[in-house]
Amino acid sequence: MNIPNSLTLLRILLIPVYIGLLVYEEFDQALLVLLAAGVTDALDGTIARAANQKTRLGAFLDPLADKLLLTSGFITLSTIHLIPSWVTILVVSRDVMLLLGTAVAQLTETEIDITPTFLGKGTTFLQLSYVLLVIFLSSRQIDLQYLHPLLFGMAAFTLLSGFHYLYRGYRRAGSVGL
């Protein structure tokens, strides 16, 4: 256990705090916790690279912590009716699809390319931006309809990136004869 992995674990431990603050509509504090989690994310990567402390555990935990934080935000915001349920279903379904594809590749010992694509990175950026803005606007009691263009853009990126990752996996499976 090194400093970067400890920071990643801290980020995971912040998730219940973040969820609780959202549920009790303490949006400013939830934003602070989310920003603190973002700082730990930046720090753990920087420290791991600078101090040559990259580990297999960190390579697994870091993206898991990010995904858990983002997914818990979508689920919670949907549960308290700040975002439409269909959005959460879309986001979670895409992530489950990617997780299942990765699991199948591991079980069949198929090499897969898990490098993020432009669509994948764009999706993450738009999802995070949407969650942050929903929380921020809710804290200021500003109508969330202003976010509809972002919502639909984020949904489109989520769908496109999901289909793109499926296509890449299908192409790869076909090239190895599965």
UniProtKB/TrEMBL annotation:
InterPro entries, sorted: CDP-alcohol_PTase-I, CDP-OH_P_trans, CDP-OH_PTrfase_TM_dom, CDP_ALCOHOL_P_TRANSF_CS, Phosphatidylglycerol_P_synth
GO cellular component: membrane
Record field: catalytic activity: a CDP-1,2-diacyl-sn-glycerol + sn-glycerol 3-phosphate = a 1,2-diacyl-sn-glycero-3-phospho-(1'-sn-glycero-3'-phosphate) + CMP + H(+)
One GO-annotated biological process of the protein: glycerophospholipid biosynthetic process
Cellular location(s): Membrane
Family according to the record: Belongs to the CDP-alcohol phosphatidyltransferase class-I family.
Designated name of the protein: CDP-diacylglycerol--glycerol-3-phosphate 3-phosphatidyltransferase
Its membrane topology: Multi-pass membrane protein
Gene: pgsA
Keywords annotated in UniProt: Lipid biosynthesis, Lipid metabolism, Membrane, Phospholipid biosynthesis, Phospholipid metabolism, Transferase, Transmembrane, Transmembrane helix
Pathway: Phospholipid metabolism; phosphatidylglycerol biosynthesis; phosphatidylglycerol from CDP-diacylglycerol: step 1/2
EC number: 2.7.8.5
